[in-house]
């Protein structure tokens, strides 16, 4: 970890080079996409440091490394830069062979990618519903759509008869989906799991995982950050 | 190849089981996403048959295999089903080790995936521009945006100093991007390449590739199909 977790914004000095036996993650503490990469780094025990970025006011040196200015972004000691959360996670799993998170069978790997693609249609609801709520709109139809999507994931678990999406132990797809479920209580959406008991049970199993425990924030913390975010003035350093 | 390339619609009898040493592709002859998979099947010399689907009137047996009803969809002799074009292509590259299309180096693989992600922001213009044109709208700003995106890909080739996006021979990323360039003349967008000479040159190199030649249609054929598609009555079997 870097000396300070405080985010770096425009005008801040660039961090030093990435130490030889490390990999660096440019992140934002409350970003669910960057959390995917944090989960993989932690689960695989990869030596890394984290540089948090002020996403409202990005440093020039960060935009030079990644002109898209996205987190998560990985940087290697030789200056290679990798971004887009699923790409960073797959890269880490390929480069660090210890505790493989993706299955070795090509069809099982394809299944995880298809599930991830399906899940990419779920994440927008975690934005649309609270935004609708904040405007006093009726979000019941959005919640019904979300529940329908959850039913597909519930069915996957029912058919597989396993605790997790890739079997009875955690694999990549579980970590790719987890960050949004961690935030459900924060945006008062936990009742959307009431009709999908296997998926609800999955969230309980996930909460027992040491890596999930090590990377998560409390609902109270999320609530404070999220309020500041919705007000257009995100408190990236809340709690430090 | 199946006995006939004619598309199968609702009520048509289901094709027989996938032969043991084959893989089956459910496709639509003019679909650029399915063409990605056709390119990979051809380039790697994989034994396969193709079943074309009437996408306006899908057979029930197809929806049972893939409830999303998407092409491309792959089916193996044991009944495994794989969809989403990049997932099908990566699966084929993993299962059939002859003539690997993805680089073996994890960072180079990540680079190809990042380029593909960037390219996913390009493909919508190939829909938005002709639709705008057909409504008599001014599409010059959309064309300017497309040219800006092309400039990024041109710069990649300039920086790499290579003929193709993964080096001096064709690799996966080239095939993933190609189908849309093949359709540029059909929708009168070729002038959008005028300011990006390296990218234009890339299209010329691609046209020399035997696999590209084997899977492509003429601009005249595309024009007939596209007209029928825009009129809401796609002629999937045109030219058969």
From TrEMBL, chains A, B:
Transferase listed as a keyword: yes
GO function term, MF aspect, one: methylarsonate reductase activity
Domain GST N-terminal stretches: 21-100
Entries under InterPro entries matching the protein: Glutathione-S-Trfase_C-like, Glutathione-S-Trfase_C_sf, Glutathione_S-Trfase, Glutathione_S-Trfase_N, GST_C, GST_omega, GST_Omega/HSP26, Omega/Tau-like
GO terms of biological process kind: glutathione metabolic process
One matching Pfam family: GST_C_3
Any one of the GO CC terms: cytoplasm
Catalytic function, reaction form: L-dehydroascorbate + 2 glutathione = glutathione disulfide + L-ascorbate; RX + glutathione = an S-substituted glutathione + a halide anion + H(+); methylarsonate + 2 glutathione + H(+) = methylarsonous acid + glutathione disulfide + H2O
Entry keyword set: Oxidoreductase, Transferase
Annotated Gene3D superfamilies: 1.20.1050.10, Glutaredoxin (3.40.30.10)
Enzyme Commission number(s): 1.20.4.2, 1.8.5.1, 2.5.1.18
GST C-terminal domain span: 105-230
Family membership: Belongs to the GST superfamily. Omega family.
Role noted for this protein: Exhibits glutathione-dependent thiol transferase activity. Has high dehydroascorbate reductase activity and may contribute to the recycling of ascorbic acid. Participates in the biotransformation of inorganic arsenic and reduces monomethylarsonic acid (MMA).
PANTHER family in alphabetical order: GLUTATHIONE S-TRANSFERASE OMEGA (PTHR43968:SF6), PTHR43968
Protein name: Glutathione S-transferase omega
Species of provenance: Carassius auratus (Goldfish)
Gene name in the database record: LOC113056971
